[in-house]
Amino acid sequence: MDDSVLFSVRLSLQVASVSTALIMLTGIPIAYFIARRKFKGRELLDVFCTMPLVLPPTVTGYYLIVLFGRNGLIGRFIYEWTGWTIMFTWYAAVLASYIVALPLMIKTTRAAIESVDKNLINASYTLGHSDFDTALKVILPLAKRGIIAGTVLSFARAMGEFGATLMLAGNLPGRTDTMPIAIYSLAGSGEGTKAQFMVLMMTVISGGFLYFANKYAKRII
Amino acid sequence: MKKLGRLCLFIAFLCMAVPLFAFAGSTKEITVSAAISLKNAFEEIGTVYESQYGTKCIFNFGGSGDLEKQIAGGAPVDVFASAAQKDMDELGKLGLIVNATRADFAANSIVLIVPAGAKTSLTSFEGLGATEIKKIAIGNPKTVPAGRYAEEVFRFYKILPSIKDKLIYTENVRAALDYVARDEVDAGVVYTTDTATRSNEIKVIVTAPEASHKPVVYPIAVIKGTKSEKDAKAFISLVLSEEGKKILQKYGFKSNK
Fold first, then answer.
1. How far is Cα A151 from Cα B10, in angstroms, rounded to an integer?
2. Which residues in B59-81 are b (16+ Cβ under 10 Å) and which e?
3. A110, pLDDT greater than 90
4. Is residue B157 packed enough to be buried (19+ CB in 10 Å), middle (13-18) or exposed (0-12)?
5. Residue B58: helix, strand or coil by DSSP?
6. Domain limits, chain A
7. pTM (2 d.p.)
8. Are A90 and A169 in contact (CB under 8 A)?
9. Inter-chain CB proximity A87 and B36 less than 8 Å
10. Does CATH number 1.25.40.10 belong to domain A18-172?
């Protein structure tokens, strides 16, 4: 197997794993607050977090450039302080996948938390558990199914992320060419056989992941 | 809680994989953003460049419009090679290119193609008005230079209004080529250089005369603010040199007069 193919496979797995880990760390708390706290602008926050799901990925990518590019609203300060820009690095691929896949985690987890039996939550409070303990020992374990589904969906989405990644991370062979981007690049330069092989790999890896994720999820639920 | 600990460990492990990438770029290098139609030719030029100058050459291939947006947003690019003047002009207006380094380095022509197995009496652009032609694939004129040239040719032959409903817009010129090669459309308009990659699956009907569209010339320039202007200029000189021209010709590009 070609070195560049191996690199793309490894990069895709790495990007999807890191972004899924970040999505779990931030998406679950966000979903919890949207589901449990009745604050002003709650639905607005939900809409804001869901936007990347409905926007075309290229548009999301464009927004990310406007925010994180060297001349961007946030990127400008990062560049001034460190002389470093996220664009065209593999971190950019992580950021793009994170933003695009986050809504899947928030949506499924929010729905799962909201459908947890209120009586069980109230019982936990009555028995003297704090908010934090109730969340950790009652609500989240009962919302487990939704969280697992969200994680699987996020990972799968991150694996397949293309549009926003292409804009922010570019198509730098040997640097930022994840599997979808490598396929685009190969097809674009007329290397059809190599592209087809890559498409097959992508299908097998993503399909295999979903299969084992389902199996594993059944065992722990 | 145990699960959370395991997750943290996992992330720590992944972060250790980072330095492998982070320090890979410590040698001297330049980043070249180039239109994807240039991929094969530029990769070969890049190999020559690396062996001559010892500077690593990183490519970023994509649609000219997207590459332009990346550079406008502050992407760390040293050289930009576009498939159309429009995208380069836009960067020029923003003051993002070193004007003195701008040069046209290659030319291309526009051709009308049909699927290889098609039984068609099509012999010219004017023939596209015939009822046997139902779908014509061209790049989206808004973002794809090849699509803009195709529209200019249609306008030149005054057939644009009559075939407007037959046009299928694609996101890049290679997608238009792919539709024709797969026999999904009856005809398509692409670059001459594209046809070589699928020569078994398509048939070239006619090349559009030079007078029918703006010249298809590829501009190249150094991006302002680059930290390696000397190396960037060296890359452009190589592209413009006899050696560079020879490589470009190998992939079907005409040298710019």
1. 15
2. bbbbbbbbbbbbbbbbbbbbbbb
3. yes
4. middle
5. strand
6. 18-172
7. 0.81
8. yes
9. no
10. no
